[in-house]
Write a structure and sequence with these properties.
The complex is a heterodimer of chains A (about 120) and B (about 110). Chain A is mainly beta and about 120 residues long. Chain A is about 0% helix and about 50% strand. In chain A, the strands form 2 sheets. In chain A, strands 2, 4, 5, 6, 9, 10 and 11 form a 7-stranded mixed sheet that branches. In chain B, strands 2, 5, 6, 10, 11 and 12 form a 6-stranded mixed sheet that branches. In chain B, strands 3-9-8-7 form a 4-stranded antiparallel sheet, with no helix packed on it. A two-stranded antiparallel sheet of chain B has the order 1-4. Chain B is globular. Classes of the chains: A mainly beta (about 120), B mainly beta (about 110). The interface between A and B is medium-sized, with 28 and 28 residues.
């Protein structure tokens, strides 16, 4: 069973640029959630995708957008990068909830630095 | 809205000793779930232990156990026989039944000393 993978590991961009982060979900999982973890903070929920459709969104501006593909992998796109977007971006995948919640399995994250 | 609070930014413990990490939460929901995650320097978030709010019995996983006080909305993690590999950030998190997101606390950095 393959775990959650993310690419790239590290990324450096400049203000105003656009970035795409990628996530491959764990085998058999149809749901992907994205979190932003600023330095010294806990992860903050950005949005979730379920079967290729957005299934909930946190308090992030529209320049944060995403996609989920038929194989359930996902992309996070951020336009017009700002310095405060510098963070670790975590992807978490989950399957159909059988416990009343979706247990999430996290990837290793992508460290984005905006200069 | 749900909130999760971890009031201990940093803690240290001697190897083989016991340490307790604190977490309080607030939710208006009846069906919710609580978690402790470990994030080592490798950055991978690893589930340590989970607790279903409807269960009165405290969850236990080997050296890890929780003290779940539902009325007080408290969910502390006890690590027994601490090991050097336990050194990491520990996050408390909450989610509600049928919801789509986890709410995390700000974390406690635990250092296990040899």
């Amino acid at each position: 069973e393959t775990g959650v993978t993310q690419s790239p590991t590290h990324l450096i961009k400049t203000r105003g640029q656009q970035v795409t982060l990628r996530c491959s979900s764990q085998s058999g999982h149809n749901t992907v959630s994205w979190y932003q973890q600023a330095l010294g903070q806990g992860p903050q929920f950005i949005f979730q995708y379920y079967r290729e459709e957005e299934n909930g969104r946190g308090n992030f501006p529209p320049r944060f957008s995403g996609l989920q593909f038929p194989n359930y992998s996902s992309e996070l796109n951020v336009n017009a990068l700002e310095l405060d977007d510098s963070a670790l971006y975590l992807c978490a995948s989950s399957g159909t909830g059988t416990r009343g919640y979706n247990e999430q399995f996290f990837g290793p994250g992508t460290r984005l630095t905006v200069l | 809205a749900q909130t999760v609070t971890q009031s201990q930014p940093e803690m240290s413990v001697q190897e083989a000793e016991t340490v307790t990490l604190s977490c309080t939460y607030d939710t208006s929901e009846n069906n919710y779930y609580l978690f402790w995650y470990k994030q080592p320097p490798s950055r991978q978030m690893i589930l340590v232990i989970r607790q279903e709010a409807y269960k009165q019995q405290n969850a236990t996983e080997n050296r890890f156990s929780v003290n779940f006080q539902k009325a007080a909305k408290s969910f502390s993690l006890k690590i027994s026989d601490s090991q050097l590999g336990d050194t990491a950030m520990y996050f408390c998190a909450c989610t509600t039944s049928g919801t789509y997101k986890y709410i995390f606390g700000t974390g406690t950095r635990l250092k296990v000393l040899a």
